[in-house]
Each structure stands twice: as structure tokens, then as C-alpha cells.
Amino acid sequence: MTDRPPIDPDETVDLLQELVRIPSPYFEEREIAAFVHDWLDERGLNPAYHHVSEPEITGYEGDNVLARLEGSDPDAPTLLLDAHVDTVRPVEDWEEDPCSGRIEDGRLYGQGACDMKGGLAAVMVAFEALAERDLAGDVLLAAVVDEEGPYGLGTDRLVRDGYADDCDAAIVTEPGPVLARGEIENPALVLGARGRFLYDVTVRGEAAHGSQPERGVNAVVDAGRVADALAGIDVGSHPKLGEGSVCPLLLEGGSQTLSVPERARLMVDRHVVVGETEADARADAEEAIAALDLDSEVEVGFREAPSPDVRYGPYVTDEDHPLVTALRSATRSVAGVDPAIGYFESVGDFNYLGDRADLPTVILGPDGENVHAAGEFVYTDEVVEVAEVVVAAATDFLG
């Protein structure tokens, strides 16, 4: 028989439905942040807004919502619960309102239902339940903005302003199995993630009349050759995270006038594993390009960022860490089975916590399908189960 913490399934799904019905594409989270703040405030959980500003590149202004439960022992650990409130922008192929929150056959539909309003609902009700317990350690809830945007500004600001400094471990309630390496199913603990660099490559050729291409140097043609060369880079490998990957994403240059293109720009995604640095990534690209012996001049850079440390570094959390042990035990108690162990293929706020903040970080979230696409849904029973596991594990971990 399982020992289920006091989470009300109906109230949890009702909360999820309310969250999904609030449109919240990244950079447009004001309404949902206010909802989360008010929901916590109505329950006496003392939320506060934490301002997020990035004026130089995006001009973004927004607010995380933070709340803290203070434990009885200052020497006990502090646990961070992190969930983002934003979604991708609704895609055009929806055949119903992308914020409908429709429930059918145990699935709740809507843009962001799985990524990650299911996890947000789970962590909110878990936080409320933990407030009723006598804990030795603290719990910090962070409902953050702009995870889906270009820089993860909400959790970046959380780390930058020192909120992670006194934390000892983190749970991020992202959907794990849907983007994990290999085939795993919930209940699952995702204990690490690959990192990511985004090459921004400039190719400078020489203009000429398009009827005499031999008199110029075609930057678009050479950029295509660069894209092909970068796609063939030897990537790193890791026993937990698997292999890295390279994927050209964008090539732009030239015009409709009858001229040999003299400029082109190429952006290439590179996912990396533990042990691969930015210097390694740059050197690999420059070596591959040098071997082409192009007539164009090629400059390898990386995507512009608000600060040099705004990067998605890879990380792995030890399977023997006390938080992982607590989550294993909680999963057995709640679900009656041992959790699967997996590792994330891509990047997210968890990289900022696991790498930049150096926190043992576990991804534990409800699964679904069609993430970032039309027909996205989350399994409602998994939302409830994740909340129950978080409560049981946090109670164990914090004492």
C-alpha cells in the first residue's frame, strides 16, 4: 500500500486548468505572475515579486514570484523548487482554443499544459502542503518568467541576485521523459542535462556582378560549406549524457539584386556534454573551417548575450545525493515503484541551477505529448503524483 501525502487531486487539476487558461507566452507573463502571487497570498504564504530586467538586448521587464517557508533549524538544508510560468508562443495549427484547458481521458490540453504549467501547478500545491508541516530546513519557491525566451532571464536573475546561494539542492518540475535521452517513462528522475552553445558565424566574401560570379567570392555559397563542415564536427560523449550534437539553424545573406553576395550569417546549435568548454567549441569550429581553405573570411563567434556568464552549461547530479535518495524513497511510497533514471537531451533553467549555481538539481515533472506544438497536453494524474512526490521527498530531505 502506498502512503500518499495530502494533495487534493480535484483542487490540483482545477488550479492547472486556471493556469492553462491564462495566455502567458514568454515576455508576456504579467497576468499569470499576478495570478500565482495572488493564489499564494490568499493562502497566507507571503509571496513577493522579484523584478527581472534586461534593457540592452530584449528590453524585457517582468517579475518572478518568490515565496519562502522557514524551517526550525538554520543548519538544515534549503530546497529550491523552480517552475516557469511562461510558454512558447501559441502555434497556428491548433484546432481549438490553445488556452482551452479541455480535459478528456485524463489529459488536459493547452499550449504549455505540459511545458510546464502541469509542473507549476504541482509545485504550487506541494508548497502549500509543505507549509502545514514542521520542517527543519527552508523551502524556496520560485515561479520564474522567460524560460522559453532566448536567455532564461527569470532564473538567470534568480541566480544573479544570490537567491540560489543559500540553497543546497533544487527540484525543477519540467516534463522529463518527453525530452530525455532514450526511452523512459514516469515516474522518473532526470539527473542532468547537456549544455548548449550557439555559434554566430559571419562570412565575408567579395561582391561582383551576378552575371560574372567568378569575379567575386560568394559568401552564401561559402556559408553553406561552413554549415556542412560544422555539422560534421566530432562531438564529445559522456557516460550519462550521451553524445553532443551539432545542428545548423539559420543561414541568411544576399539579396534579389544581381550581385554576388558579399556577406552571410550562419547560426549553428551545438549541444555539449560535461568536459566541453566554450574554448573547445570555438577551437573545434575554427579548425573545421580552416580545413575548407575558403576564399571568404570567416569569423566564429557566439550568440550575443546579456552577460558572458549567461550560458547553458552541462551538469550531472550524483545518484547518491541525499535529495535523489529522498526522491527515490518518495516515489516508491507514492507510486509503489522505483523511479526511472534519465538525462535531459536539451537545455533549460535547470542548467543555470545545476551548472552556474552548482546546485544538485533534479528534473521531476508530469509528462504529456506535443510539447511546443498544437495538441499539447499533460496527464492530469501525473500532475497530482508529482506534487505528492515533492511533498514526501522535501519532508524527508529537509528533516
UniProtKB/TrEMBL annotation:
Phylogenetic placement of the source organism: Archaea, Methanobacteriati, Methanobacteriota, Stenosarchaea group, Halobacteria
Record keyword Metal-binding present: yes
Keyword GTP-binding: no
Protein name: M20 family metallopeptidase
Coiled coil: none
Leader sequence segment: none
Assigned protein family: Belongs to the peptidase M20A family.
Cofactors (names): Zn(2+)
